[in-house]
């Protein structure tokens, strides 16, 4: 089954939004398979945002991501990557719809509280970057038949 990498950024921790953000994914029927609080290194953030290192906003983004710990998570579910993006909402909170995490909690693109992998391929890369294989749990919640019509 598909997995995606979701991260609560330093502002989400500082603003005590860890539990409400996790609840969004639990309530949608996602399964939590990995979680840890990490104060990232420079090289980890450079690798995580490798596609963005030449952007003019990158120094600010890096400073933001290094300003405190983050909560790194892997969530499992059908279409986890696409659905994870939908739950998180548009990059710029000026465009993120109410009902999304960013649409409900954010104002500024440089303080958008949460990260979600943008594709299945990105999810694989990011999960491998942040977690060792033995940090990923394998289990089936007992309610899956109530979340999905056809359980894989
Ligand atoms: P992530 O889930 O964090 O990867 O965001 P995203 O996929 O919605 O957007 P993208 O990967 O393009 O950008 C990564 C992060 O860089 C964003 O979440 C913002 O925090 C930041 N960012 C992107 N564009 C801008 C910008 O124009 N200005 C500023 N200040 N930050 C930006
Ligand atoms: Mg992105």
Tell me the layout of helices and strands.
Layout: E1 3-8, H1 10-14, H2 18-27, E2 31-38, H3 42-48, H4 58-65, E3 70-76, H5 80-88, H6 101-105, E4 114-116, H7 120-130, H8 144-147
Antiparallel strand pairs: 1-3, 1-4, 2-3
The chain binds guanosine-5'-triphosphate and magnesium ion.
Guanosine-5'-triphosphate (GTP) binds next to helix 4 and strand 4.
Domain Nucleoside diphosphate kinase-like: 1-138
GO molecular function: ATP binding; nucleoside diphosphate kinase activity
Active site: 115 (pros-phosphohistidine intermediate)
What does this structure look like?
It is a single chain. The protein has 152 residues and is α+β, with helices and mostly antiparallel strands. The chain has one domain: Alpha-Beta Plaits, CATH 3.30.70.141. 39% of the residues lie in helices and 16% in strands. It contains 8 helices and 4 strands, in the order E-H-H-E-H-H-E-H-H-E-H-H. It has a 4-stranded antiparallel β-sheet. The termini are close together. The protein binds guanosine-5'-triphosphate and magnesium ion. One of its GO terms (molecular function) is ATP binding. Its EC number is 2.7.4.6. Its cofactor is Mg(2+). Keywords: ATP-binding, Kinase, Nucleotide-binding, Transferase.
